[in-house]
Specification:
Strands 11, 12, 14, 15, 16 and 18 form a six-stranded antiparallel β-sheet that branches. The chain is α+β, with helices and mostly antiparallel strands and about 400 residues long. The chain contains nine helices and 19 strands. The radius of gyration is 23 Å and the shape is globular.
């Protein structure tokens, strides 16, 4: 008999994969646009990243299932990315980590919390309760089921639902909520519970949401009632359980409004700025499309963290190194540590970006700036004539963080 293990639902570390919805998935979700490729990248711990560089000492982790994961939303538009962006705009110096994994139950979320997240010592954790409990708690033993998708152990042992509702195992949910609360309080982590929003009311999910509301009310835990505050508007969802980019932005705004006054650091310690550099170009391998010069003010008190977002449609692309990004600096650049650039007489300072073929994509990449340069411009072209790319937008985002709260200083 094969040995069983408790499942830690997470992405593998250092993943870079473009997800494309299947035809069957798209047919069942006509609001989800076809021809899109959604890039998912993870860090060395297995958190889903936004493409922007990590720059803050202070951390917030978002935990949940597919609602947090946001696999079919572009990486810079996912809930966690927008929460981070809005916090920066409001002056709060916090990196936001995405620990969402599709199919997670509340017990799976608890496993991630105590076996992974708390060791990163976040100041705050935001947990969106799981809609997957609607399935998990219908098995005879509730969370202790053998399902491939909703079980807590591996290898799986398939079984059928034993109950028509979650009522028989409802106490398990209340118990797991108390375990999450205890773990956070024991570690001195600020906890925020969120209800799960959906566009069409479901009696079983409503029971789960009321359990969250009641637990928060009775145990002095902060509640973010997304189910109450996020409009039931089809323009915000691509199916009955998952928000699109517009829905993610509105949910992020609700979360930030709820947490920013309860954070220890800020406001006035960070800023965020985005600027369009180039738009609506057919890229060529013969010559780069160049942005205007962009000025930066160096300061020992404020650390600057830039990133590029490329919004494009690839008609044909090399498997690797499809796009070349060139950097031109005022003066001879001096770098501190690893900068990630190559240098050639023909291309100057440059690096490469991989794109998937025949898809619309939004890809965010970090930039490293020299320590001695106050202005730069950016060029973009394809590697060769076999790569055909329509550039819709090239955006530059700049995060500025107080030096005492930055990991870059």
């Amino acid at each position: 008999m094969q040995k069983r293990n408790v499942r830690l639902k997470e992405f593998l570390p250092n993943v870079r994969r473009t997800y494309v919805p299947s035809e069957a998935y798209l047919e069942a979700r006509p609001a989800l646009e076809s021809g899109q490729g959604y890039l998912v990248q993870t860090d060395k711990i297995g958190y889903v990243t936004h493409g922007r560089p990590r720059c803050c000492r202070n951390k917030i982790v978002l935990l949940g299932g597919s609602f947090i994961e946001g696999i079919y939303v572009h990486e810079n538009e996912r809930l966690s990315a927008v929460v981070e962006e809005l916090l920066f705009e409001s002056g709060y110096p916090y990196d936001v980590y995405n620990a969402g994994v599709s199919g997670s139950t509340n017990l799976n979320i608890f496993n991630s919390l105590v076996n992974k997240v708390i060791y990163d010592k976040p100041e705050a954790i935001v947990i969106v309760t799981s809609s997957n409990d609607m399935a998990a708690l219908r098995y005879r033993d509730g969370y202790r089921n053998g399902s491939k998708f909703h079980g807590n152990t591996v290898p799986e042992n398939p079984e059928e639902w034993a109950y028509d509702s979650i009522d028989d195992n409802f106490a398990q949910l209340e118990y797991v909520l108390s375990l999450m609360d205890f773990a956070c309080k024991r570690q001195g982590i600020k906890l925020f519970f969120c209800t799960f929003p959906e566009i069409k009311p479901n009696p079983e999910l409503e029971k789960i949401n009321w359990a969250v509301r009641d637990y928060c009310s009775n145990n002095h835990v902060d509640l973010i009632d997304l189910d109450e505050r996020l409009p039931r508007d089809e323009a915000l969802y691509y199916d009955k359980l998952h928000v699109n980019a517009a829905g993610a932005r509105l949910a992020a705004d609700i979360i930030v409004q709820s947490i920013e006054g309860k954070l220890l650091q800020g406001p006035g310690l960070a800023s965020f700025n985005r600027e369009e550099l180039i738009a609506n170009k057919i890229l060529s391998s013969l010559a780069s499309e160049w942005s205007d010069w962009y000025s930066v003010e160096s300061s020992s008190d404020r650390m600057i963290s830039p990133a590029l977002t490329i919004e494009c449609v690839s008609k044909a692309a090399r498997k690797h190194k499809a796009i070349i990004i060139s950097m031109e600096f005022h003066g001879e650049p001096e770098f501190q540590g690893d900068h990630g650039y190559f240098y050639a007489k023909s291309s100057g300072w440059h690096f490469y970006i991989d794109v998937a073929e025949d898809l619309a994509q939004k890809i965010t990449v970090p930039l490293t700036l020299p320590t001695n340069v106050d202005a730069f411009r950016i060029g973009i072209r394809t590697f060769d004539d076999l790569t055909q790319i329509e550039l819709q937008r090239l955006d530059l985002s700049i995060v500025t963080v107080d030096a005492d709260h930055s990991i870059l200083g």
